[in-house]
Amino acid sequence: MDQLGIMLAVLGAALAAGLAGSGSAIGVGIAGEAGAGIMTEDPGKFGLVLLLQALPGTQGIYGLLTAFFAILKVGLLGGATVSVNVWQGLGILFACLPIAIAGYYSAIAQGKTSAACIQMIAKRPEETGKAVILPAMVETYAVLALLMSIILLNSIQL
Amino acid sequence: MAKKLNVNPNRMELSRLKIRLKVAKRGHKLLKDKQDALIKAFLQKARTLKDLREKIEKELEECYRSFLLARAQTFPAMLEQALMITGSGLSLKMSHRNIMSVLVPVFEVEQGDSSLNYGLGTTTGNLDVALEKFARLLPDLIFLAAEEKALRLMAVEIEKTRRRVNALEHVLIPSFQETIRYITMKLDEQERANLSRLMRIKEIVRSH
Amino acid sequence: MTRSIDYGYAVSRLRAMENRLLDPGAFQRLLDSEDLPSAIRVLSETSYGKWILEQQQENQFEPAIEAELQYVYSEAERFVPDPGLYQLCRLPYDIHNIKVLLKGLFNQKRGGVRRMDLLTALGNIPVDDLVMAIESEDYRLMPFGFHRTVPECVMLWEQAHDILQVERLLDEKLFSLQLLIVGVMPFDGARLFVRHRIDAENIRNLARLKRMGYEAAQAAPFFHNGGFVSLDRIVSLINEPFEGWERLLAFADVSKALSGGQEHADLDSLLVDLERSIDDYLTGVLEKFRYSSFAPENVLYFLWKKEIEARNVRIILVGIGNGADKAVLRRLLRHV
Q1: Do chains B and C touch (3 or more CB pairs under 8 A)?
Q2: Domain A3-155 CATH superfamily
């Protein structure tokens, strides 16, 4: 039974990295498709398109970060192994959920916004600054989720 | 004396020439009258035709303008396609009318009634307007063509008559007159010669 | 959700292509040119330029317009996931090709000419296939249900020798096919567009038939089913004066196309403006989708805009070539 706590913590880390990562993949994919559309007609827009396409990628990084924190906490990354009981394990799993869920959905939403903004710079290249701000607004909620996940992880006493 | 006819100066010729002169003069007068009448009719017709032509040209321009609207708004092949098959027939009957010995053509047009021979889906409404205008103009256009042809024929006839009149007036009649005068003079001369000869003979006879 | 994301590439590509559409300034420059050669020079600075360069004869612009449309359609074909969207726009050209071939066939039987030069490559069905099918009277392989329609047309002609009936059947087919195409696609916008289009076509036909003095019973077969306004109502309008149409149709969106109809003295002048306002109205229907980044209807919007642009270019060039009044031309121009 003593292994179950660790495994729950691992599940939390896996969800954080996996869900946020797939969300980012979908988001980057959407933005990338839109970017490819623009660049077929106007290859000179590569720099701007790349910037906008990369924006939905951050959720994946947040997910990875949270996963690291989680497994670091249970001592799987070297150091002394900590004994984790079931309740502590569950706590770590739940703490990972904000970034897993918010990461997944916000990445997709951000991908769509990025795609729309890529379409916008196709028409108005001079409005690039505004085009970057719009998807960045979506980022806020991913950052908030990351913050919450880290606070929750820290607040679990082992 | 270039105009003089090369004839024998005898009484026979003289009387023949006098008859010919008379005929020529009468012919000249008749032709002159015909020419005057023709010119009068021609001028009158030309004047009315000019108005008619101007009117039709204006209408034609209007037709083309509305056709231009249709042409400008349709894919050109679609426009031609719409007009590929026409359902309404058009029959043209031609007869002749005689105006002062000029045979003038007269056309009678009969237009079929159904005007719509193309689908509405691939054409524009301006085509309807333009085609209708053209159809309305067509009889007038043919009438104008007939009248203009008549005018041209009349002009040719006037030209011909004038040449005849001129020939009579400036060549035939003067030469007849010249010849008659020549023959009369010649005959008078002969008579005088005869007279003097007779007188001379008489004198010779008397002196014996 | 994934369905709508399919159009990410297509819509972005179209957005970029939209940049190359002629803007009002370009149309103004075209309008301001003195004569046809200078107008063509202005046009050759736009996306039509490369096709104009290919023209053998001078002052030819129709082939260039056709080539540009052809290019746009073939590009769209390559990246638009649902073929129905561009098929919808190319369908009128198919109908045109079939009409050319059928009329050629009928003409030939009467000793007339066939006019193969009128065929256009803008249709969905390759011209060669179409010619082959109709020449050999082997209609089986014709797509879009034409395998039934074409023999029907031939039969109609043999019976009555009335080309109007054939034309009407094919026009009817044009719209019922459009409905069919959008019916199998899950896009409400496309369906809306086709229905609005049918409404607009009905109104246009109504005005044309009214002008020609058709009775309600005679006019009924000219109208197409499937619009928002019912056929009965459309047919009944023919007995009303056209000034009242807008009020009587006020419940339907299409009445917008009729606004300003009261200013016209007669149907002749109404018709000139009606065609333009109908096109503008349909542009308006599609314009709504411009604001959604993944809407497949953007494809329709772009292709429609391109058609409108081609029409505008043609109006200006034909007008300038024939010395038409610029004010008249300006009034004909569709909104861009």
Answers
A1: yes
A2: lithium bound rotor ring of v- atpase (1.20.120.610)
